[in-house]
Design a protein that fits this description.
Length: 253
């Protein structure tokens, strides 16, 4: 069942399931919702970008997009979404910032079921119980470190956006500091204040955000590792497993 989010913004229910099927490389232009959205790709990979950063949801992951957040979505491969629009009070702990969270087998089945439930379901029946459990499972889902926040500092933001176009795992603090005419200490303080991460953490997340869609498209691990500046697939795989807990092959289509 394909439902357009805008058609359900004002349905008098706290949680509404929506779903859709999209061709490979399809893009949704920047838009926003009155409600929060939990975006999950039952098939394929979704890449979400906002003015504040970029998030990638590979298999068994979902993206929380807070109410009112402008966002664009790019589909990697053919994508089937099973998502929900959520009134803020229904998932109070997820907050005002985008994040990637783990989708358990139970949460996945609830998301699939929700897309088939009528928008104006009986609030005293089984459908309402499914939706309440769905909201609870979303609210308690573990956060996964797959964020690439963008700074507000104009020159640093420009550097970050350019890096995402061609990420290199070998980039150093001194190279970036010199390019921005800063000393090392000033740069590291500015970078953490603007992004909430160290430079090494952000660089790693940026490389992952580029690698995951390529893995989902079936590209070889070795080619991806070398393109990102790793000296071979072993060092890339070590980083990948350390951050995500599984080898890169787990995410290949």
């Amino acid at each position: 069942m394909h439902r357009h989010a805008d058609d359900y913004e004002h349905v008098p229910r706290p949680v509404v399931g929506i779903g859709g099927d999209y061709p490979a490389s399809f893009e949704l232009a920047e838009h926003s919702h009155r409600r929060g959205q939990f975006l999950y790709a039952a098939r394929g990979v979704v890449a979400v970008s906002t003015p504040e950063g970029a998030w990638v949801a590979p298999p068994e992951r979902g993206v929380w997009i807070p109410a009112g957040t402008p966002h664009a979505v790019r589909m990697v491969g053919a994508v089937t979404t099973r998502s929900v629009l959520v009134e803020p009070a229904a998932c109070p702990t997820l907050g005002r910032h985008c994040r990637v969270v783990s989708v358990s087998p139970l949460l996945r089945q609830l998301l699939v079921a929700a897309a088939e439930i009528p928008a104006e379901y009986d609030e005293t029946g089984r459908d309402a119980l499914v939706m309440r459990l769905l909201a609870t499972e979303i609210d308690r889902a573990p956060v996964i470190p797959l964020a690439v926040p963008f700074p507000r500092h104009a020159a640093l933001a420009g550097r970050c956006h350019a890096f995402l176009e061609r990420p290199r795992a070998t980039a150093t603090i001194d190279q970036w500091a010199d390019a921005l005419a800063m000393n090392r200490r000033r740069f590291t303080r500015l970078f953490r204040r603007e992004t909430g991460m160290s430079f090494a953490e952000w660089r790693r997340q940026a490389c992952l955000s580029v690698a995951l869609p390529r893995l989902a498209a079936g590209e070889p691990v070795t080619a991806i590792a070398l393109d990102l500046g790793y000296d071979g697939p072993a060092s890339f795989s070590t980083m990948f497993r350390r951050v995500l807990g599984v080898p890169p092959s787990r995410y290949r289509n």
